[in-house]
Write a structure and sequence with these properties.
There is one protein chain. The chain contains 13 helices and 10 strands. The chain has 383 residues and is α+β, with helices and mostly antiparallel strands. Helix 3 packs antiparallel against helix 5. The structure holds zinc ion (ZN). The site of zinc ion (ZN) has 5 residues, from helix 2.
Length: 383
């Protein structure tokens, strides 16, 4: 989940909004505007919408506080947090690493719901003193905003405490299972399976409600279930991948058949002699025996064809400074993280300035496919 709109930084953490957040904001404004109108018919519709809008903005602030609670606890326990992104179903804190022990996982996970509960019950406690009452109405505007804000925050905390991965409650469950079994992978598998069951129940409930006349509300619940199902499945798959690749070094999996071309060659010669003859996608570019960059069809394609004759490979390549290079003894899992977080397809493996090989995404995917074809258990390590 990448943010589309950057809002600034808090404690070194980038705060951003995903477009889908506007869906939930609009939903809150409309459903709340409707409720407020029923409760206090004497308000003008402008008053109604302003109150609903203020509630949505304050809910945004409390969502941010929920995520900040996760992130600040994570930072306090030594984890690096890159960014917080708010989207349709809440927020995500992007951490550089996963928690390395059950205790950290537990406190990071529970911090968010605790923050939401404190905000929620705080608002609910203050609202009556400021004139909140259902009947005889109408309530004051300030108290109505506070009441709904409290109600939404408490509901949000309760929803997040459902013990299915990747919800906060699922992470809490994972931390508890982890503390008992001392096995991080197994605890994630269990929490992800529970998450899939919870998601399935959401979908069933949503469909049931839709057909018993709840209309849009039912579809919304089914949508949340579908989203949770997807997230639980991918976290399950991630554990399998992690377990399969753990302990492996880049030198064991890299391809050695990377062809080296000279930087002085023209692009036309490179295309004719190498690119169209070998079927390979990635070539190392060398100058005086040292790696100076790599060139793939992507770089060639960026140069107009009528200029291939008088452009050298060196001018078209991606220079070494722009590449993420790794050492042969880098763990494969770290290489995979680099591939994903930098959105590149291959990483040159370099030792003492010389190219040793290349690690690519497709290669790692194939590696995992072979394992699953042999139906090896995730914990199987080659001897
Ligand atoms: Zn949370």
């Amino acid at each position: 989940m990448r943010s589309n709109i950057k809002l600034g930084k808090i404690s070194g953490i980038e705060i951003g909004l995903h477009y889908s957040w506007f869906i939930i904001a609009a939903l809150i404004v409309f459903s709340l505007g409707e409720r407020l109108h029923q409760m206090s018919p004497s308000w003008s519709s402008l008053q109604n919408w302003i109150a609903a809008l203020i509630t949505a903005v304050l809910f945004f602030v409390s969502l941010l506080l929920h995520e900040l609670a996760h992130s600040l606890v994570a930072q306090a326990r030594g984890l690096k947090v890159k960014a917080i992104t708010l989207f349709a179903l809440g927020g995500v804190s992007q951490m550089q690493d996963d928690a390395s022990d059950a205790k950290t996982e537990f406190w990071v996970a529970i911090a968010g719901p605790i923050a939401s509960l404190i905000i929620g019950f705080g608002c609910l406690a203050v609202a009556p003193g400021l004139g909140w009452r259902r009947s005889p109405g109408p309530p004051t505007a300030v108290s109505a905003v506070l009441f709904w804000l409290g109600y939404i925050n408490v509901s949000f905390a309760v929803f997040n405490l459902i013990p299915g991965f990747p919800l906060d409650g699922g992470r809490v469950l994972r931390a508890i299972v982890w503390a008992i079994t001392k096995n991080a992978d197994r605890s994630t598998r269990i929490a992800a399976r529970v998450g899939q069951v919870v998601a399935f129940l959401f979908i069933l409930d949503g469909i049931w409600q839709y057909f018993s006349g709840a209309g849009f509300g039912g579809l919304w619940i089914a949508f949340i279930g579908w989203f949770l199902m997807d997230a639980a499945k991918s976290s399950y798959a991630e554990v399998e991948t992690t377990a399969a690749l753990r302990g492996m070094r880049v030198s064991e999996v890299m391809s050695h058949d990377c062809v080296t071309v000279d930087r002085g060659m023209s692009l036309q010669d490179f295309v004719d002699v190498y690119l169209l003859k070998t079927g390979q996608r990635c070539f190392a570019v060398a100058g005086q025996g040292r790696l100076v960059g790599i060139i793939t069809p992507r770089e060639v394609g960026a140069v107009p064809r009528d200029r291939w004759d008088n452009t050298t490979v060196r001018e078209a390549m991606r220079p070494l400074q722009e590449l993420h290079i790794i050492a042969p003894d880098t763990p494969v899992l770290d290489a995979l993280k680099l591939l994903v977080s930098n959105d590149v397809n291959q990483l040159p493996v370099v030792a003492n300035g010389a190219l040793q090989g290349m690690v690519s995404r497709s290669q790692l995917v194939q590696l995992l496919q072979v394992r699953s074809q042999l139906q090896l258990p995730a914990a199987y390590q080659s001897h």
